[in-house]
Design a protein that fits this description.
Layout: H1 3-22, H2 29-34, H3 47-71, H4 75-96
Helix pairs in contact: 1-3, 1-4, 3-4
Keywords: Membrane, Transmembrane, Transmembrane helix
Transmembrane segments: 51-72, 79-97
């Protein structure tokens, strides 16, 4: 596989993973940080939009990493890409699946 395509796929993974971490699962989570006595958060109408966006981002990330798996000749690079795919899926499921 060309080095530039591999670097692009890994950079895409890093940026997408940062979006997963930065995007809140509820837009009102900052309220609990400011006032810990708030036990339940208000309803979040935009939750489905964030979930769909991050799911599409997950699909792009997984497709890029699977491209590395299918085109790479190195077993080490294939293994790393498979682990990254599993990490991305697990992070998305833990963060956005309810």
């Amino acid at each position: 596989m060309k080095v530039t395509a591999g670097v692009f796929a890994h950079l895409l993974f890093a940026c997408g993973f940062l979006v997963f971490i930065a995007m809140p699962s509820n837009k009102y989570t900052w309220m609990q940080e400011m006032e810990p006595s708030i036990s339940t958060l208000p309803a979040d109408d935009g939750f489905a939009d964030r979930t769909i966006f991050t799911l599409l981002l997950l699909i792009v990330i997984v497709a890029a990493q699977l491209g590395i798996v299918f085109t790479s000749e190195s077993k080490k690079e294939k293994g790393i890409s498979i682990v990254l795919v599993l990490v991305a899926i697990a992070a998305w499921l833990l963060r956005f699946w309810q």
